[in-house]
Automatic annotation (TrEMBL):
<dbReference type="GO" id="GO:0046872">
    <property type="term" value="F:metal ion binding"/>
</dbReference>
<keyword id="KW-0479">Metal-binding</keyword>
<dbReference type="InterPro" id="IPR045121">
    <property type="entry name" value="CoAse"/>
</dbReference>
<dbReference type="GO" id="GO:0010945">
    <property type="term" value="F:coenzyme A diphosphatase activity"/>
</dbReference>
<keyword id="KW-0378">Hydrolase</keyword>
<dbReference type="InterPro" id="IPR015797">
    <property type="entry name" value="NUDIX_hydrolase-like_dom_sf"/>
</dbReference>
<feature type="domain" description="Nudix hydrolase">
    <location>
        <begin position="37"/>
        <end position="166"/>
    </location>
</feature>
<dbReference type="Pfam" id="PF00293">
    <property type="entry name" value="NUDIX"/>
</dbReference>
<keyword id="KW-0464">Manganese</keyword>
<protein>
    <submittedName>
        <fullName>NUDIX hydrolase</fullName>
    </submittedName>
</protein>
<keyword id="KW-0460">Magnesium</keyword>
<dbReference type="InterPro" id="IPR000086">
    <property type="entry name" value="NUDIX_hydrolase_dom"/>
</dbReference>
Amino acid sequence: MSLAERLVRAWQDGNRTDPVLLTGDDRELEGRDEADLTPAAVLVAVTDRARPGVLLTQRTDTLRHHAGQIAFPGGRLDPGEDAVAAALREAEEEIALPPSQVQVIGAVDRYRTVTGYTVTPVLAAVPADLPFVASEAEVASVFEVPLDFLLDPANQIAASAEWRGRTRHYYEIRWQDRRIWGATAAMIVNLSRRLAW
């Protein structure tokens, strides 16, 4: 069975009975209509190898927002784009991932951020060991984390911190010397609650 077929089966066999999915702080988003949020998409690219991995990027320290953070390749939708087109375009711009090498499985549960975005993760399979070229303006590095490690609830640590006078709750996942947290970790947690991997 191919990786794409395994991912489709894992999605089909996953939890469909009211899983508890994460979204941004509902108090921050209260009263905001979905139409008020900026649509965005990210590519959850799973590498086709014996132990599949997920491609992630570390953002450059020079960015105005989320500098140095770990993220999926992605960004806001351009006019006329759907989530799949945006995720593929952004992955090509950020890490030089050719769209022709991406086998899209489909869009998964959207995540609303406290910063006013509604983000659609697009699950996909990609060949292992493609040569990536990080966009110097946005991406400091591209790396891979084993899918089973990310989806394991034992590695998804609930944490909290004070920010702008409020206690914020979030998840973080530690991989080697990297800290995956915030919206990226939340989307991984949501995926782990949906995929029967």
